[in-house]
Write a structure and sequence with these properties.
This protein has helices at 9-32, 41-63, 138-153, and strands spanning 2-5, 67-73, 78-85, 88-95, 99-108, 114-122, 127-129. The two termini are 18 Å apart. 40% of the residues lie in helices and 31% in strands. It is elongated.
């Protein structure tokens, strides 16, 4: 059994910073600031709105960055994809016999640069993301896919 993990720690830190700073501004505008009573309604409303946007952005960021583990269980001939994040724990099982290919999904980031993530396509046409995180390092994604393919082929799965 081989386990491959992605590491969303920096994404989680960034999301937590948005939530923390946003909450500080939102709560500060409600009376946490020592001079909140001297602030005008417009200033307090603006601070609360900006803080709320910060909290929402942080939560959105955290929801989109779950930790993923890919387990190639050769004994049971199944690929298990586990995710842990704000949505809880999810698990997807893909039997070796249902795997058609292991491929790279390519997209672009907000600056137009290419980003990649590993996927498995089943013989039914379903695409299973091995990681929900996009990365700029194509070689790292290729290494993950090669590792998955090798583990599967060691037990007779052509791929």
């Amino acid at each position: 059994m081989r386990i491959i993990r992605d590491s969303p720690g920096l994404f989680w830190i960034l999301g937590a910073l948005f939530v923390g700073v946003g909450a500080l501004f939102a709560l500060g505008a409600l009376a946490l600031f020592s001079d909140a009573g001297t602030m005008g309604v417009a200033s307090r409303s603006l601070a609360f709105a900006m803080g709320s946007v910060g909290v929402a952005t942080g939560v959105w960021f955290l929801r989109r960055s779950p930790a993923s583990s890919v387990i190639v269980d050769a004994a049971n001939r199944v690929v298990i994809v586990r995710r842990v994040g704000l949505r809880g724990r999810q698990e997807t099982l893909v039997p070796f016999d249902d795997v058609r290919s292991a491929e790279i999904e390519q997209g672009v980031d907000d600056e137009g640069n290419p980003v990649y993530r590993p996927t498995i396509t089943t013989k039914y046409g379903a695409v299973v993301l091995l990681s929900e995180l996009h990365v700029h390092d194509k070689a790292r994604v290729e290494k993950v896919l090669e590792d998955v393919r090798r583990q599967m082929s060691d037990v007779g799965q052509p791929n």
